[in-house]
Amino acid sequence: MNPVRGPRDAQIRAGITPTNHARQNAQAVREQSNMNAMRKAAEAHQDTKGLKLPPVRSTSAPSQRGLQRRPSSSSGRDFVAENRVGAAAPMRPPRLEKRDSADKYINKKDYGQVPQYLLERKMQMAAEVEAQARAKEAALIPPGMRLMPEDERLETLEVLKKNREEVDRAIQQLPLRIETPSAIRRKEDLERRLREIEDAIKIFSRPKVLVHL
Q1: 147 pairs with which residues across the strands?
Q2: Other CB atoms within 10 Å distance of the CB of residue 25
Q3: Rounded to an integer, what distance in angstroms lies between the CA atom of residue 191 and that of residue 164?
Q4: What are the beta bridge partners of residue 160?
Q5: CA 115 from centroid of its chain's CA atoms
Q6: Is-contact 153 204, C-beta < 8 A?
Q7: Residue pair 19/12 in contact by the 8 Å Cβ criterion
Q8: Radius of gyration over every alpha carbon of the chain, rounded to an integer in angstroms
Q9: According to the model, what pLDDT value does residue 158 have?
Q10: How is 40-85 classified by DSSP, letter by letter?
Q11: What phi and psi values does residue 31 have, to the nearest 5 degrees?
């Protein structure tokens, strides 16, 4: 038995010459490469044929004879030479008027400070608020009473604290055994006075104290 080994073997047995695809691919690659080379050569030849070199001009200053051959106007002025001189002249620096004005404003003595009229307005508004608060407090005070000023309240509170220290010291100096009626009355008076002083201290320790007129 002689089995068939693939499509190519079957074509050979049938009398058909199989196609050599590798050879065809290599030939196609060579043809495409030749066509690309011919196209590039044609493009390079076309570019070289149509290229025009610009005329070479001298960078040196024109001679006096050349200047006389080409007058720039009927008036006889040579604008080319004038433009050349103007281009060589130094450029003027830009004007700094706006910047100078800003610098002057920043360097002012009162720069960054609150204007005086704003300070006065602020003080006026604070005084108006304080006056309104006093008016409301006065409306709450009963008839025949008055609001004690702050300095008077603090002074009275200081006096009460000193009196409390004196009474407390006197109580500490009493004997441990109190049997006589006079000693008993003295102790009771000191204790009652101490309670009164402590109650008064509580009252005058408040931020607002009302007293009789």
Answers
A1: 210
A2: 10
A3: 11
A4: none
A5: 25
A6: yes
A7: no
A8: 59
A9: 95
A10: HHHHHHHHHHH--PPPP---SPPPHHHHHH--SSTT---HHHHHHH
A11: -65, -40
Which residue, 153, 152, 156, 175, is CA-closest to 164? 156
Tokens 């931020």: give the residue: 207
Residues 6+ apart with CB under 8 A from 191: 171
pLDDT at 68: 46
Host H or E run for residue 146:
strand 145-147
The first and second tokens of residue 104, run together, are 């002057």
pLDDT value for 193: 95
Q: Are 122 and 162 in contact (CB under 8 A)?
A: no
Give the span between the Cα atoms of 9 and 12, in whole angstroms. Answer: 5
- Would you say 165 and 201 are in contact if contact means Cβ atoms under 8 Å apart? no
Point out which residues pair with 210 in neighbouring strands. Answer: 147
- Structure token digits, residue 101: 């004005």
Using the predicted structure, report yes or no on whether residue 137 has a pLDDT greater than 80.
no
What whole-number distance in Å separates Cα of residue 44 and Cα of residue 208?
107
Token output for 136: 């409301």
70 is written with which tokens?
A: 């080409």
Q: How far is CA 72 from the centre of its chain?
A: 60
Q: Are 136 and 192 in contact (CB under 8 A)?
A: no
Beta carbons within 8 Å of 12's beta carbon, 6+ residues apart: 18
Q: Averaged over 52-60, what is the pLDDT? A: 50
Nearest by Cα to 133 from 147, 121, 153: 147
pLDDT bracket for residue 62 (50, 70, 90): very low
- Using an 8 Å Cβ cutoff, are 205 and 161 in contact? no
